[in-house]
Specification:
421 residues; alpha/beta; Aldehyde Dehydrogenase, Chain A, domain 1; 2 domains; four-stranded parallel beta sheet; 15 strands; 18% strand
Length: 421
């Protein structure tokens, strides 16, 4: 190993030891203790708004030439800092995930068996440009009794550090160990490798970022990974859609925030609806600054649309770009999504219940919506207070990952002297 790798590994091991000790203490705390820390962190975020904004300005100043969507992901303002603080308070208001009754039964031999919720332990999280992601992870891990080690992107390092300082202040005020929420000491890439190799020190790895990051973590991690694929989300306009609803939903799904993983990247529309609905939808989106990539059938309905290139329907744009295709009903729409989607979030807009139910039953994505924007794929919007990520795998958790998904379980067995024959 290089000197940088040796140093990063030593630093990670020391942080993991503090995290393991903190996790043991957190698992034994009461809900009131954990909620108090969340409330103190919210107060600290508000009190340090100026310092967080100054740090964010430094990050933005170093971002150089970047896309509007990237700058939007990176940018903090007073409203977004207030939203982070409210997120801590919202998580505090939720029921204690460690107090959930998961099951209890008695065997014929008199043994009473009880399944109880338990924290996972030490969570590792590697994320990229959105500095608020670290705050969400800290809130959820604290509430669920887990310790977390955060490694944010180099582009948001100053912002993430300022947020971490506020969270640490909240932990101190609530007399909880600061080792419960730690952040990589520098944006050095060697620390990422150290985290991924820390089997036995980190119990679960959560990547939050682009395709390259997720693929690397999934490939190299020596512990379980709660991963998500790209947010290649679709909105399908069925022939029985309400035209005004379709316009409103698509505009929000694409343009509310183009750089988030729940943004719609492909619009599918029935051939029967395209001549009537597509021109107005395109006009609405164009007025908001959207650009397009369309197949031949969509261009027949709106001739000014640019021709789609090979691969456009497999692209997560994360920008004000929308792929558009015409289909011949629910089954072809499902086939298109199966061929090009990422099992993240997909929506249908229709007044036909049977069509909606067929779509919802046939889609394999983690989240499917009927008559609503794909941008509702968000932990806060699901009532989770926040999210640590969107899981698109098929094991343990799917969709927004909140408190319940950050716990596992164990068994307590009560006997009266039974022995096994």
């Amino acid at each position: 190993m290089t000197a940088e790798e040796v140093g990063a590994t030593a630093e990670l091991r020391a942080m993991a030891a503090r995290a393991r000790e903190a996790a043991s203490l957190l698992a034994a705390t009461s809900r009131d203790q954990r909620d108090a820390a969340l409330g103190e962190a919210a107060r600290a975020l508000r009190a340090r708004t100026g310092a967080i904004l100054e740090a964010n300005e430094r990050d933005l100043g170093q971002a150089g030439e970047s896309t509007p969507a990237f700058r939007d992901r990176l940018t903090l303002d007073p409203a977004r800092i207030e939203a982070m603080a409210r997120g801590f308070e919202a998580v505090a208001s939720l029921p204690d995930p460690l107090a959930r009754p998961l099951g209890e039964w008695t065997r014929p031999n008199g043994l009473r068996i009880k399944r109880i919720a338990q924290p996972i332990g030490v969570i590792g999280m590697i994320y990229e440009s959105r500095p608020n992601v670290g705050a969400d992870a800290a809130a959820l891990c604290l509430k669920s009794g887990n310790a977390v080690i955060l490694r944010g992107g180099s582009e948001s390092f100053a912002s993430a550090r300022a947020i971490q300082d506020a969270v640490a202040s909240g932990l101190r005020a609530a007399s909880l160990p600061e080792g419960a929420v730690q952040m990589a000491p520098s944006p050095d890439r060697a620390f990422v490798a150290a985290m991924l190799g820390a089997a036995g020190l980190i119990d679960l790895m959560v990547p939050r970022g682009g395709k390259g990051l997720v693929e690397r973590v999934t490939r190299e991690a020596r512990m379980p990974v709660l991963a998500h694929a790209e947010g290649l989300c679709h909105t399908y306009i069925h022939e029985a859609a309400d035209a005004e609803m379709a316009r409103r939903v698509v505009a929000n799904a694409k343009m509310r925030r183009t750089g988030v993983c729940g943004a719609t990247e492909t619009l599918l529309i029935d051939a029967a609806a395209a001549p009537l609905m597509l021109p107005a939808i395109v006009a609405d989106l164009a007025a908001l600054g959207c650009r397009f990539r369309a197949d031949g059938r969509a261009r027949a309905a709106v001739p000014d649309l640019p021709q789609a290139e090979p691969g456009d329907f497999d692209t997560e744009w994360l920008d004000a770009v929308l792929s558009v295709a015409v289909v011949d009903g629910v089954e072809p729409a499902l086939a298109h999504i199966a061929a090009h989607g990422s099992s993240h979030t997909d929506a249908i807009v229709t007044e036909d219940r049977a069509a909606a139910e067929r779509f919802l039953a046939g889609i394999s994505s983690a989240v499917a919506l009927w008559n609503a924007s794909t941008q509702f794929c968000d932990g806060a919007e699901f009532g989770f207070g926040a999210e640590i990520g969107i899981a698109t795998g098929r094991v343990h958790a799917r969709g927004p990952v909140g408190l319940e998904q950050l716990t596992t379980y164990r068994y307590l067995v009560f006997g009266t002297g039974q022995v096994r024959p």
